[in-house]
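Input.
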Amino acid sequence: ATCVSAQAADTVRVRGTVESLNGTTLSVKTREGANAKIMLKDGWQVSSVAKASVDDIKPGDYVGIASLPTASGGDGALEVLIFPAAMKGTGEGSYAWDLKPNSTMTNATVADAVKSVDGRTLTVAYKGKEKKISIPDGTPIVTFAPATASDIKAGATVFVPSEKATDGSMSSARVVVGTNGVVPPM
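Output.
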């Protein structure tokens, strides 16, 4: 029998600006205005985001797309992350996301990309399902790029997928930091 620990952590996505990085304690002023202290786990990793374009998205690529339902049916992208090949399969699926109310995140493989008058529409495949997502012109499209801890400086924009323990403490093994004027759109 499997036993689920009462100490199970909740996933919390911290978005905001860096106040400080002191050793392995990251202090962030969140987009909601609160202060968050996140303990960075042993072996934590940092990456930045680099601008990409809709023309960089090819069938077979693995993408993460935050989207909202559109009035005409289907979904419209809020942002697109093109994963490096080594991260293919990360978090595959489509699930509720907190970028905006009612948004979803779909991590999937691009089955086909169709160019139309109104930007592009991608058909993405995950876990035996397909979803069509339109990418309006002007949608932020990024890919991961190298970064170092020195990029995590006061005022930098960060996205930190974290775990919140029952005592309220937060920890994370990954920080995505904005560099060169490109901020994490997810």
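Residues 62 and 125 are 10 Å apart (CA to CA).
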